[in-house]
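lol forgot to send this yesterday, sorry. struct tokens for the thing we talked abt
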């Protein structure tokens, strides 16, 4: 658990920022800490696994994402929102928007990392975007969620973070394994 100290000695311009951080930490609570823990475990498993095992891990994680984004929801209305970055503009207005953006980013970090172990190329970003668009289309067609451009942006950002972490991991391993002169 992260503890943000309360200090009346903070300068006035920083006070709203500290309050916002404090509110975010309170919000993050168990769910996002659990999600971050799961991401860490997936990273560790992915690093320790062979390419074939990473394919299975990708299939497993895909099933988890399908459950979380489709099967875990009740059917409702078909709606879409194509206004770019509308929820990002409301990030500091309400905890709901922060929660949605952060969860969508975190949800795709493992996809990027696992895919980096299977297809170590930056063109993998296209695959991540297609997965995100596919999920949004399925949510729209099934009425189990909204098709939102912001979700695609957040998911793609999370996938890019995971892909970057995976690529950096591979470069670090290559660097450490290179022959010493």
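and heres what i got for the seq, position by position
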């Amino acid at each position: 658990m992260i503890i943000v100290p309360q200090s009346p000695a903070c300068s006035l311009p920083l006070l709203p920022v500290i309050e916002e951080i404090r509110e975010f930490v309170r919000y993050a609570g168990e769910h996002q800490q659990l999600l971050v823990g799961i991401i860490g475990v997936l990273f560790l498993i992915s690093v320790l696994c062979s390419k074939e095992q990473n394919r299975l891990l990708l299939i497993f994680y895909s099933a988890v994402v399908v459950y979380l984004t489709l099967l875990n929801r009740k059917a409702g209305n078909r709606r879409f929102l194509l206004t770019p970055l509308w929820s990002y503009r409301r990030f500091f207005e309400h905890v709901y928007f922060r929660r949605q953006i952060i969860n969508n980013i975190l949800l795709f970090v493992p996809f990027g990392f696992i895919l980096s172990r299977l297809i170590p190329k930056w063109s993998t970003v296209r695959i991540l975007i297609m997965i995100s668009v596919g999920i949004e289309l399925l949510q729209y067609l099934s009425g189990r969620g909204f098709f939102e451009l912001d979700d695609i942006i957040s998911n793609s950002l999370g996938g890019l973070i995971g892909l970057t972490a995976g690529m950096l991991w591979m470069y670090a391993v290559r660097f450490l394994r290179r022959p010493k002169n």
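DSSP finds six helices and two strands in the chain. anyway ping me if u want another try
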